[in-house]
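Backbone geometry tokens:
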Amino acid sequence: MRSMVTVSRMDPHSISEISRLFAEFDSTEIPGLIGLRRRQLFVHHDIQIHLYDFVEKSDPAALEKVKSDPRMARLSVDLQPYVAPYEPKTWSSPADSAASCFYGWEGEPLENTGTEETTVTLARMHPDMMPDLEKAFQEFDATARLIGVRRRQLFSFKDLCLHIQDHAVADDADVAQKTASDLWFGKVLRSLPQLSSEEPATDGRAHRFYRWEAS
């Protein structure tokens, strides 16, 4: 499964409208044409994290067809009153909203996993710290056995680090999130002073307000 993450600003009071627009869009055939398996939207204060999970291989012809579909442009226009670029002065195209994945880890396959759950945590990070942060999580994942964690990804965007975890079942999310937060806001931030947990607050867990998954 391939993942993509975009980061924007949003009005937290517009959750219902944003959810409605995506629900209408995702009810069409377009997500299937582009190979979208799952879409999730999270918010932390006024920061929106848009997580896309795609199938491993997409149909290039279908992708080209979708680019010119007027419903794609209409969605962008309809979202404008509620969603804005993270840094409007430097934004020039949708590509400027894309985060970069610099670390990924997957656990052993589990049987009968049930409903998979996702948690997203944010912290401020200087880009120069990515190698040290990657090393810290590599060491952690080589020895830790977090309950139900299936996948961990770290994305960088501007001054943010996005810590994304997929869990085997919903009940494991809180346990795994607490364990990872102890590392993230404990050992990592203490050993890497260039990271700051002051903004967002140390409880940097984002709230998911929309989820769509292919049937």
About this structure: The first helix runs from residue 15 to 26. Residues 154 and 180 are 12 Å apart (CA to CA).
